[in-house]
Amino acid sequence: MKIGLLTSGGDCPGLNAVIRGAVLKGVISHDAEFVGFRKGWKGVVEGDFMPIERHDVRGLSKQGGTILGSSRTNPFEGEGGGPENIQRMLDENGIDAIIAIGGEGTLTAARRLTDAGLNIVGVPKTIDNDLAATDYSFGFDTAVEIATEAIDRLRTTAESHGRCIVVEVMGRHVGWIALHSGMAGGAHAILIPEQPQSIDQICEWVESVRDRGRAPLVVVAEGFHLTDMEEAHSHKGLDAFNRPRLGGIAERLAPMIEERTGIESRDTVLGHIQRGGAPSAYDRVLATRLGMAAIDAVYARAWGSMVTLRGTDIKTVSIAEAVGTLNVVPDARYDEARILFG
């Protein structure tokens, strides 16, 4: 069997480990042949791919980024887009199936293409941990480690100047990165999309910290919005899937906090640093296991399915189950952290 691999959407630590796990399992167990589509769905639409041999994935699990490149291309657009054109390209090149490694947008596209008859298996990828049907996705652990280290560093400069620091982390419409890094870094307030807060409540937490002689540190997820805001802050337009590009809420909150409390405040947006660098050991192992399981799903002809982590076991579920709802932070988890605020 000839299998095409693609990595689409935002880059993520562990993508190369998935590729390595899939290729090694496919070659060793099934004598499979592999190609890699360049730049995600863009390579599929344009028929741009390269062969991937066993020696190409040697030592790849520790490498960040993706050797295939990525993009936010919509496979239903463009001259070569749409299920009929894509299937024609696959047939002409003898490619029997696609393993699509990506997040919500990538997997939604994969589901639509599978519904149209294409042979596709999905692998969940997102640092945001926002995909339902999987307990954790690879890349999340690495992003939390990076954010936690940044929080530790920012705490020292905040204490030196007696400033309030507002740290913005990624996460889109869920607050998992903020929750975990905030708890690990000892944040005095954690602001997540699932739990809108008023500016008065935020300032109350900040002032409580100041009154105890400490420098307040607030961690905010990019998708957080105040109670008087209708939606998350976005001023960067839309992506290829017509989703708003989030970011910048920390830049709004810091001056509001300073104005109301009189505490000198600064904002720091971590941005894409959370996606960069080598994946953690946990993410390398999880990504490798998911890549190997994706090969099993291909040979089981489980088209339209996605490999997933349930507890410590790798399972297979339908892609529709994964993209239908967000994996949001439960109220109970936020209530745990809230005890530590102020």
Automatic annotation (TrEMBL):
What does the record give as EC number?
2.7.1.11
Annotated ATP binding sites: 10, 72-73, 103-106
Q: Where does substrate bind?
A: 126-128, 163, 170-172, 222, 266, 272-275
| Listed cofactors | Mg(2+)
Which InterPro entries does its entry note?
Answer: ATP_PFK (IPR022953), ATP_PFK_prok-type (IPR012003), Phosphofructokinase_CS (IPR015912), Phosphofructokinase_dom (IPR000023), Phosphofructokinase_III (IPR012829), PKF_sf (IPR035966)
Kindly state which keywords UniProt assigns to this record, in alphabetical order: ATP-binding, Cytoplasm, Glycolysis, Kinase, Magnesium, Metal-binding, Nucleotide-binding, Transferase
Which Gene Ontology MF annotations are present?
A: 6-phosphofructokinase activity; AMP binding; ATP binding; diphosphate-fructose-6-phosphate 1-phosphotransferase activity; fructose-6-phosphate binding; identical protein binding; metal ion binding; monosaccharide binding
As for subcellular location, the record says: Cytoplasm
- What GO biological process term is on the record, naming one? fructose 6-phosphate metabolic process
Binding residues for Mg(2+): 104
Q: How would you summarize the oligomeric state and partners of this protein?
A: Homodimer or homotetramer.
- Species per Swiss-Prot/TrEMBL record: Agromyces tardus
Q: Its encoding gene is what?
A: pfkA
What family classification does the UniProt entry report for this protein?
Answer: Belongs to the phosphofructokinase type A (PFKA) family. Mixed-substrate PFK group III subfamily.
Q: One GO CC term of this entry? A: 6-phosphofructokinase complex
Name the UniProt record assigns to this protein: ATP-dependent 6-phosphofructokinase
Active site, UniProt feature: 128 (proton acceptor)
What are the residue positions of the site described as Important for substrate specificity?
Answer: 105
- A Pfam family found in this protein is PFK
* Taxonomic superkingdom: Bacteria
Q: What does this protein do?
A: Catalyzes the phosphorylation of D-fructose 6-phosphate to fructose 1,6-bisphosphate by ATP, the first committing step of glycolysis.
Pathway(s) = Carbohydrate degradation; glycolysis; D-glyceraldehyde 3-phosphate and glycerone phosphate from D-glucose: step 3/4
> What positions does the domain Phosphofructokinase occupy?
2-298
**Catalyses which reaction(s):** beta-D-fructose 6-phosphate + ATP = beta-D-fructose 1,6-bisphosphate + ADP + H(+)
Q: What class of enzyme is it?
A: transferase
